[in-house]
Amino acid sequence: MLSVDEIRKFIDNDGASMKKQLAKTGIRYFEGEHDILKKRIFFTDGKGIIKEDLLRSNYKIPHPFFNLLAKQQAQYMLSGKESKFNSDIPELQTELDIYFNDNKRFKAQLYKFLLGTIVKGWEFMYAYRDDEGRTAFECADSLGVVEVRARETQDHCDYVIRWYIDRYDDECRAIKRIEVWDKSQTYYYVQIDEGDIELDKDEEFNPKPHTMLKKGKKLYRDDYGEIPFYRLDNNDNQCSDLKLIKALIDDYDVMNVGLSNNIEDTQEALYVVKGFEGDDLDELIENIKAKKHIGVAEDGGVDVQTVDIPVEARKTKMEIDKENIFFFGMGVNTEALKDSGSTVSVQIKTAYYNLDLKCEGLLPNLEEVLLKMLRLVLDEINKKNHTAYTITDVYFNFERETIINEQEKAQIALLQAQEQQTRINTLLSTAMQLGDELTVEQICDVYDLDYDEIKSKLPDPEENDPYAMVEEVPGEEGVLIE
Known about the structure:
Layout: H1 4-15, H2 18-30, E1 42-44, E2 50-52, H3 65-77, E3 85-86, H4 90-101, H5 104-120, E4 122-129, E5 135-140, E6 145-148, E7 159-168, E8 174-181, E9 185-192, E10 197-199, E11 208-209, E12 211-215, E13 218-222, E14 229-233, H6 246-264, E15 269-276, H7 281-291, E16 296-306, H8 311-328, H9 334-339, H10 345-351, H11 353-385, E17 395-396, H12 406-429, H13 431-434, H14 436-446, H15 451-457
Antiparallel strand pairs: 1-2, 3-17, 4-5, 4-14, 6-7, 7-8, 8-9, 9-10, 9-11, 12-13, 15-16
């Protein structure tokens, strides 16, 4: 078992790692806390000394493109209306719906799982038993999860440390909860600010098994046989999607605030001053900006030379940056789609091509992690129902849905219906030549119906034929016609 000193060392070393620092940058940009917020402006005063300009306009406007791109991918990957966990076995499908497909909490956690992976580069999900005694899953912030291995080269973890800030007390001290998981149980600790790490005395069982089942008055302990933490990597390097577009977003911010500053600043005009009464150049600049007047000698004057603001150049540069942000960020710029009149399905699919590529790149990693989680659930179902289901009995469906123009969709449906009606009319017009059986078979093919099932329900043709011959009635002349 890890000592408290080892726990502190692992948490401190992990928090200082370059990987966690880059993940924090991804979170900052997702929350709109861009580097532009740190922007400062300097100038050289009349004595040649560099100073920070606190009077000049210095707008700091972040543009949260990354927030949009990350949410767009996470929602698009889960956009399909079909169930994600499926089986051809009805009884198993019912169980899967309870655990996954119809479980609103799981859906919410799966979205957080994907979003955290895209923003930070990797994210965790862990298993636990809910109030009903059923295995459930919850997303765990990867910034607060530390994987501990005896050797860095081994795949499996010996321990997983999870920590999070539970609350702040009356003295504004952070109450940090720390959990240390191994293959069979969990140890609970508490830390106030940066103080000592101590066992959490509020926990009734410490350490506590992964699961505890109550039958009557007795408690039974159980475990998952593994550390039930499952990591989803965004890519091989566990890098945030921000990495490829951060410089472009920063450039867009600079161009945008530069335009705002240009418009706001009176320094876009050059003041040619003659006969200035004073000996301080800084005073002159401050009077022009703040007081809007200056004093000059009797024969002095001020000649204002305006400078054109490079509005079009900045706007063009921002449009180029924006286009590149969506292109290299592999997202869909819906505004550009609307402005270009892209309403037909082919153009919409083309616009979604890069986003589809990005989703397809992450999907194998997601399915691999979901398979590990699925094994836990199937083991639980098998124990409960005395079944022998395996992962081969389950398949995933992550088919995505794009924006489709409703008018075009209706036109396509109308054309299909008209084509179908034309085929039916042609078959009916040739029914005498084809015969009833072949005609019905062809109609079933048009409507995608099972011919054998339809045929068994059709009446006998002779029963509906008014000219069909019947047996002679003995003792009577002629033939009775019904």
